[in-house]
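TA notes, week 10

Several of you asked for a full example with nothing omitted. So below is the full record: structure tokens for the whole chain, then the designed sequence directly under it. When grading your own attempts, check the secondary structure regions first.
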């Protein structure tokens, strides 16, 4: 088994921060949209009401897309081992996400879906790194 070496730490940190910053922006946009829909309907928002499947799917898919972006940014910043740097962003994001779940557990998803989403975080980072690889010119 090959040990992962020669990864640049700063691009990985930047990629993780880009992913989480994107998630925060996404969460704020969803919150504004939800509040706006209540204002438009003339109803009072219920903070204890569960989120709809559409809102949860938007948050989950958006969160994965921000991890793809973080993996892409890290790989481009590193300039080498693109997929490995993107995967490292996914692993770092997974670790931070697990720490956040220890602080505030998510009760919105069933456990199997939660596990699937956590695995998808690593794959999303790897995909971003893969997409960052320069195109190889045809000879």
């Amino acid at each position: 088994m090959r040990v992962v070496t020669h990864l640049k730490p700063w691009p990985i940190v930047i990629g993780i921060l880009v992913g989480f910053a994107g998630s925060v922006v996404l969460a704020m946009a969803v919150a504004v949209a939800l509040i706006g829909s209540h204002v438009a309907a003339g109803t009072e928002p219920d903070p204890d009401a569960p989120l709809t499947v559409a809102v949860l799917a938007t948050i989950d898919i958006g969160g994965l897309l921000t991890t793809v972006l973080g993996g892409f940014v890290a790989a481009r910043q590193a300039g080498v081992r693109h997929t490995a740097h993107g995967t490292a962003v996914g692993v770092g994001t997974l670790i931070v996400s697990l720490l956040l779940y220890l602080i505030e557990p998510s009760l919105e998803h069933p456990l199997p879906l939660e596990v699937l989403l956590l695995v998808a975080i690593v794959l999303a980072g790897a995909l971003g790194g893969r997409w960052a690889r320069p195109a190889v010119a045809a000879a």
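The CA atoms of residues 90 and 110 lie 22 Å apart. Use that as a sanity check on your answer.
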